[in-house]
Amino acid sequence: MGDEPGGAADDSAVARARALLDAARRVVVLTGAGVSAESGVPTFRGQGGLWRSHRPEELATPEAFARDPELVWSWYDWRRHTVGQARPNPGHEALARLEARLGDGFLLATQNVDRLHQQAGSRRVRELHGSIWVLRCTGCEREREDRATPLPSLPPRCAACGALERPGVVWFGESLPADALGEALRAAATCDALVVAGTSAVVYPAAGVAVAALRAGRPVIEVNLDPTDLSGQVTVSLRGKTGELLPRLVGA
Ligand code: OAD
Known about the structure:
Elements: H1 11-23, E1 27-31, H2 34-37, H3 50-53, H4 56-59, H5 62-67, H6 69-85, H7 90-102, E2 106-110, H8 116-119, E3 125-127, E4 130-137, E5 143-145, E6 165-169, H9 178-190, E7 193-197, H10 208-215, E8 220-224, E9 236-239, H11 242-250
Parallel strand pairs: 1-2, 1-7, 2-3, 7-8, 8-9
Antiparallel strand pairs: 4-5, 4-6
Helix pairs in contact: 1-11, 7-11, 9-10
Bound molecules: 2'-O-acetyl adenosine-5-diphosphoribose.
């Protein structure tokens, strides 16, 4: 019984969602770009979204990288700069507080590559789409973390073997990290409540984490500015900003 699509989150819907969370011992949260929007990180499909002005197949596929690594890297270098200036917002902080309350009963599966959840204090994070701060060698597969923005030379090369390095993110057409995805799917199917926040929930298999909870009959709370394909199926659908609603759901 989702609330009216497009309707603002009223107090009774927030109270219902909060009661579900208060009673839950095992909570899974699935987040997307909307959670970082209030930190100044652009989303993909919303207003001002990256895929409104850029073509994903030119920037976020293995084929694009093989064709023009400099172009792909200059885009990621720009995104690293943007993300590097961002700070966690009250939505990230609320999820860190929820984890502090639940301990091992908490799991945060994120599609975000910005590490803002970790910066806010979240520890039980599974990065379904990798991290923009990780560089991976296309030759020897060595991974390293590098927070320099801009990177000193583009495209970067592996210090060990000299091959090109690529961003440590998941591109279209690539597999998600199987351990992280498997753990998130299993936890979603057995949790007491799942929160799906700030994601259009159209990119699979990540969106499947929310669907796994729905299929298993678990309570699902959605927090999003706009209605999504999931809104009509979830237990409570809250329309608004994650930076405002997540703190109301979690409390101080
Ligand atoms: P999208 O840009 O597809 O969706 C962002 C969602 O957040 C939309 O549904 C917005 O309505 C909502 N939103 C925006 N600002 C919000 C706010 N302040 N509070 C609440 N909701 C807000 O981003 P994702 O769902 O994360 O993958 O996209 C999934 C994947 O598609 C990304 O990980 C990326 C992209 O292509 C890859 O690059 C592989």
